[in-house]
């Protein structure tokens, strides 16, 4: 589990299909083979760890459902280690399980993202959403997506300040909304489903 508070802006050092090597300083501190690290909000397992780098493998399913398939050497990525029970929960509960890929419509500071229609029901004004691993608060809900305000600090230390119209971002909607929907859907009359 993650918080959506990006720890470090890393870089793709190399890529061979689904095998990635990432340059990083902070997230490799205390990381061992088998540990999880979120890359642009997608939870990956460290398969190798060295001084200033770590490696991971993404299966076809992961590449098909995330923007990791678009990464190339030199690309910046948002990195976060899992939350520890002694940490503050600075963002919101993030699983690192990407729900869909969004498209940037307008860049920061008022980032507008178009999203898959099946995910829009989980987005509410002032609710939480994860964009490329960053926990953000929804400013406005749109018929085909949402807007979020990107503060200058977030723009500097994450990929969100660099995202341009047409680029893809990983989206994870609020986990609580999905569970709530599942809990009540069987109790609703057919006419309301």
Produce the secondary structure layout.
Elements: E1 8-16, E2 19-23, E3 36-39, E4 42-50, E5 53-57, H1 60-65, E6 76-80, E7 100-106, E8 110-114, E9 128-131, E10 134-142, E11 145-149, H2 152-157, E12 168-173, H3 175-185
Antiparallel strand pairs: 1-2, 1-6, 2-5, 3-4, 3-6, 4-5, 7-8, 7-12, 8-11, 9-10, 9-12, 10-11
Model description:
By secondary structure, this protein is mainly β. The protein folds into 2 domains: 73 residues, Beta Barrel (Elongation Factor Tu (Ef-tu), domain 3); 84 residues, Elongation Factor Tu (Ef-tu), domain 3. The protein contains 3 helices and 12 strands. It has a 6-stranded antiparallel β-barrel. A 6-stranded antiparallel barrel has the order 7-8-11-10-9-12. A hairpin with a 3-residue loop joins β7 and β8. It is globular. The two termini are 31 Å apart. The model has no long low-confidence stretch (mean pLDDT 94).
